[in-house]
Amino acid sequence: MNLYELAQPGVITNPASHVEYLTMVLKENINQASVTKAISEITNVQKSVSQKDNTCNLSITTGFSANGWQILFPNIEFPEGLKPFEEMKDGNRYFPATAGDIFFMIKSSRLDLNYQAAKYLVKFFSGIAVATEDIQGFKYLDDRDLIDFVDGTENPVGELRYKSILVADGTYKGGSFLTIQKYIDKQTMWDALSVEEQENTIGRTKMDDIEIDEDKKKPYAHNVKAKLTVNDEEIKMLRQNRPFGNALEHGTMFVGFIANPEHMVASLKQMITADENGNYDHLLDFVTATTGTNYFVPPQSFLDNVGG
């Protein structure tokens, strides 16, 4: 079986036009029977809701944090490399670590069906967990974020995608590590910049999404500081980011899948930490991170087996 055939389908596919990000925190004193029952309902919800529109391509991707795994699956091998999100600070920049034991990413072409699936998941998991955040994301124009730059341009495709985001061997072959951060835009500050200043901050042109030449790119550009190179090889991740919110408050959900979670940590540290020349990712001056959680998204067979 090919590596991508082992993965949960929502992990390896592109972001959809609508997505629901649902975070849950476990209750105390849950029993294994309740865990098994809840997890078994994930597939049932997906099948039931999908039948209402077979063209909507609805998928439910499920991940578990380190704390969540230890409580839910105490007698099952712990995924190597799964760690809680590490709080990071440098200067005025801050990446908080926040609570989350179970994470669902529900995506399809229909907001209403995503909502219905989320509603059912909240109901079926109510015996073991409490939903603490429910964010609806959406496609904006030609895959732009709400500061009007195209997001996800450098996402890997094909075999490179599978290699970059899926665990290649071991017990959880086909699984993936996931980092979630919610960013609120500082829109007024961003709008005060000229287009040239915005482009220098991102490292790409605004209108036609062309990468700025390396010899002209600023050392503080987002696509410079977020890009990680190890042993002369660029490390790729899959960003299934989507904007969320409304005209009053909005931002971007950072949804990053990667095969090696240490590379995600290194990328985030490189963004937030000023180097010897004082350069950090200047996009962080115009957004505020309000959440930070890490999850392991096991292969589909794990959910099928645990759900019985």
Structural overview:
This protein is of the alpha+beta class and 308 residues long. The protein has one domain. 30% of the residues lie in helices and 25% in strands. The chain is built from eleven helices and 14 strands. The strands form four sheets. Strands 7, 10, 11, 12, 13 and 14 form a six-stranded antiparallel sheet that branches. A hairpin with a 4-residue loop joins strand 11 and strand 12. The longest helix is centred in the N-terminal third of the chain and has 19 residues. It is globular, with a radius of gyration of 19 Å.
Task: For the structure shown, list the relevant keywords.
30% helix, six-stranded antiparallel β-sheet, alpha+beta, 308 residues
Short structural summary:
By secondary structure, the chain is of the alpha+beta class. It contains eleven helices and 14 strands.
Question: In terms of topology, how is this protein built?
Answer:
Elements lengths: L2 H4 L2 H4 L5 E9 L5 H19 L8 E6 L1 H7 L15 E3 L2 E3 L6 E7 L2 H14 L4 E10 L19 H8 L10 E10 L1 H5 L3 H8 L19 H4 L2 E3 L2 E3 L2 E2 L2 E4 L4 E9 L2 H12 L14 E3 L3 E5 L2 H7 L2
Antiparallel strand pairs: 1-5, 1-6, 2-5, 3-4, 7-12, 7-13, 7-14, 8-9, 10-12, 11-12
Helix pairs in contact: 3-5
N- and C-termini, Cα separation: 22 Å
Sketch the major β-sheet: 6 strands, antiparallel
Q: Kindly name the structural category.
A: alpha+beta
Strand content: 25-35%
Tertiary shape? globular
Helix tally equals 11
Q: Uncertain spans, ≥5 residues at pLDDT below 50?
A: none
Q: Helix share of residues? A: 25-40%
